[in-house]
Design a protein that fits this description.
The radius of gyration is 29 Å and the shape is rod-shaped. The protein has a domain of 121 residues. The chain starts with a helix and ends with a helix. Helix 2 packs parallel to helix 4. The chain contains six helices and no strands. Helices cover 64% and strands 0% of the residues. InterPro entries: LTO1_adapter.
């Protein structure tokens, strides 16, 4: 009997282990790249949607600010004028009356914050490149735009709770819950 034959059989387990490890690593790298790309696309899409939502809010708020009768020609006219203003109608008049927006107070501070919010969330100026610098810039602009949105919501008296239809403070919320029972 030759001793080389048994060495090959005894080394089979080690060879299969090594081959399986190499194949598992290759499959893991490929699956990780696919999963990472999918996750990156999902997160990027979520961020871009949030940026678009903030941009839309800036347009609505800007159109709710009363305009003076005489506008200088050099003023930025990229924002469309509001055709109508939204206010609640009585229940029996909901279908016959057009919805109108209520005007916001003409406050210089509010206008400055709106201009900055509009510039931060403007889709044309946002980079969609997949580089470290572009992603960092996008994230920074999104955080700053969210901060400006909170400031503007406080200035105009609108908040996340009002939009969702919930009460605007916790005392009113607790009172509503306790009176339901």
């Amino acid at each position: 009997m030759q001793s080389g034959t048994f060495d090959e059989v005894l080394g089979l387990e080690e060879q299969f282990y090594h081959d399986g490890l190499q194949q598992g690593l290759a499959d893991g790298v490929r699956a990780g790249q696919i999963e990472g790309r999918t996750f990156g696309l999902e997160k990027g899409f979520e961020k871009y949607i949030e940026s678009g939502r903030l941009f839309g809010k800036s347009l609505v708020w800007a159109n709710r600010i009363p305009r003076s009768q005489q506008q200088p020609d050099d003023q930025d006219t990229t924002q469309p004028e509001a055709a109508s203003r939204i206010s609640p109608a009585t229940p029996n008049q909901q279908d016959s009356l057009p919805m109108t927006l209520t005007s916001l107070p003409k406050i210089q501070r509010l206008e400055r914050h709106l201009k900055v919010l509009h510039a931060l969330s403007e889709p044309e100026s946002l980079s969609t490149e997949n580089t470290e610098e572009a992603v960092s810039d996008f994230d920074d602009r999104l955080k700053r735009a969210e901060g400006k949105t909170k400031i503007i919501e406080r200035l105009v008296g609108e908040g996340r709770e009002e939009v969702d239809g919930g009460p605007t403070n916790t005392d009113e919320y607790v009172h509503n819950i306790s009176t339901k029972d």
